[in-house]
Amino acid sequence: MQISAMSKKFARMTQTKKISLGMAAAGAAVVAGSLVSAPAASAATPAQAGGNVNTWINQSLEIMRAQGIPGSYNGIYKNLMRESSGNPNAINNWDSNAAKGIPSKGLLQVIDPTFKAYHVPGTSWNIYDPVANITAACNYAAHRYGSIDNVNSAY
What we know:
Helix content is about 55%, strand content about 5%. The protein has helices at about 5-15, 20-35, 55-65, 75-85, 95-100, 110-120, 130-145, and strands spanning about 40-45, 90, 105.
């Protein structure tokens, strides 16, 4: 749909007396998203079988506790959703790391050198493995910021 057609549709929606505030906001977001959009992360490998964000975080927390790595479910979840929206195959091909040839990958958008340096024993060496990605990122965050719970933006 072209922007002008979207704008007209949005205008018609907002003139309806029964329109909800949520619908108006959604329409505005669609129009704004069409005008300005950031490149999206793309999938690099097939989706991981058998799991979901809740399972991956809880498995990671179990390993982290055993290894003495601090962090909470909420701290991991907020960062994971900001970084990848829960997509274990997310890869950032447009930022400064990508420009250097080392794109951020996985649930917590870790670059290869950081993943290797902070890999946690007992987890996969596959950066796209959800549990390995979470635990390595949390290990890095613990060393750099004290805990993943202290991270509130890209790190």
